[in-house]
Amino acid sequence: MKEVWKDFIDEYIGGRLAEYGENTWVKLTEDQEIDNIISYIEDKINISAAEGLRAPNKKECLQVLSELERTQRLHQEITLSKGNHNKAKVSRSRYSSWKLYERMVLKQKGWSSNSIRELRLSAESVLKELSLNMKETGGPKKGLVVGEIQSGKTAHMAGLMSMAADNGFNVFIVLSGMIDKLRQQTEQRLQNDLVRQQVGGDITWNLLGYSDIDRRVSSASLELGKRSHKCYLVVGLKNKARLQELKEWLDYDPNKKRMMKVLIIDDEADQASINTRDVDKKERTTINRLITDIVNDGKFGAMNYVAYTATPFANVLNEVGDDTLYPQDFIKVLTSSENYIGLDKIFGTPDPNYSDGLNIVRKISDDDRDLIVEKQNSDEIDWKVPSSFKEAINWFVLCLVALRSRNYTRPVSMMIHTDFRLHSHEIISKKVEEYLRTLRDGFPSNLKTLKKQYVEEVSNVSLADFFSVMKGYEQEVEDYPSWDDVERELRELFELPYEEYSTRIIQNESNGHRSYGNGIHLCIDNSKSGKLKDDDEVLRLIYPEEGDIQKKAPGFIVIGGNTLSRGLTLEGLISTFFLRDTNQADTLLQMARWLGYRIGYELFPRIWLDSAAFNRYSFLQEMNNDLLEQWQVYSVNETTPLELAPKIKMSPSYINVKITSNNKMQYRRRLILMVLTSKLLFLVLKAKT
Hints:
18 strands; 13% strand; alpha/beta; 7-stranded parallel sheet; disordered C terminus; 44% helix; 8-stranded mixed sheet
């Protein structure tokens, strides 16, 4: 009967060979002997040894084989490179920067051994691409690292930086977006992971602020000699004034400049760094010009520019050349772990053998959408919030108390993202506060409604449903609490005085300490929000730190626009109400803050979307998978970044998704010609044979 299995698997593989090409499939399965594949199938569909003698059920086996292939493909390293590797090594010293990061940060945060190993190998492969000496490489090295939204890119950056520090790099510059709050978030993370956790190690990390660069610490005072074990870290904004200060600081002492071995990490590299001026006329935006001038300056000891992004379309479609930021030396695609909840796990895939996603998306009707869009743009406040809006808030409240009932202590959040305008955020905030009051004041009569929603949601996404989609999940998942436990915490929440039930973050002016109540903290996070007038209340989202006063898991309802669209991590995000009307793929993906790791509250996340957003995100999942499969083929065939000609799937007219803005993909015209030329050449060669 083994031959029956073998014939079936050979038939499946044969079909995939025709679709993907022999080299790709062979590399994906060369370590999988036929017996191992059969054992894998039997294990997945729970066939006993005796039952295994029967002919395979085609539908079941197709699903398992499709899953196996998909898992192999996603975990296959995707790297496009010129192949000029250095001799850098990952230090094994117990007190090296990498080993301390591994031991004091990753393991302390609960990373599995397998996840740490994957990060080490991935960061090491990028390390090998860098320039250790500009005289040897003949110029700077430029690369691109692509990772999914909130999939661990910052951990990868810190891992790469620690390895580079062990190999003699001494100046690290992280360009962290255009919003200072996001810069602060990144700076705090790197300060905790590298500076504070590595005291007494082989490397001494020094964090420099812009006040240091501008006035107190000149580059002439840096200790950069071969015997020095000091590294200097700058986390900066991508704006004209800050970049100009940084450039002047780097240029201050030519002798020290020649001793600098620099690693520039451009976080959110498709934002601001892209040249949106006419590339054919050699024009440059100010930020792009300043970054380019620093990177392409040949007077450093070593210079490396590594761009990180989840949306790389602009980085590979805009401009190419030695004087640009194009990743001409390498492109690396990071692999997300089995614990990552991405687009495919939420929206499913078009593959009929692997189609189901988690049942966590809820619909915002057209009427509900139209009502909110109309009212948030007016001054009218006397209107009733629609049913989907209430359901999203109800679910947040239910999850908050459910998690509290099992002694969860981390922040729990809801995101409301309906518009980018500041006035709209104020209107929505008032309606949220009004509904929270109604929910509390009418608690006895609302209890039945809340219980019904909880029971329905628990049945919609069970523990078994979760594992049927999240195959290979590496953490234990706790089931939902009973309704009795939820009701007990719910009553305690609604019995709070109103000023504590619906509250703001309180910050003590004298010592800076913040206190968090046992109720729900309302936050507006946008370019204008800050401290409220005449008191100690803070309007903007600030999560608790060590030393901040709190008794239970703090709850946050966060209303905002562009500051919620990129880079910001919303902790414990379990309810999202999303109505932004944009059709650019990169912008849409960056807004999907619900993607990521949900360890400790896996069963709770829900997302409310209107039909337009749902269709667009479903298409983006297809587009991303299609691009990933192309890059897999390029990687197997050892294509270099300069030979890259990506084909981006176009959306149907009713979905209407653009890749990115036109001025961010000016190189696409030449790429289209390259793709057409390659197709024509293929047809000619085929005709000759």
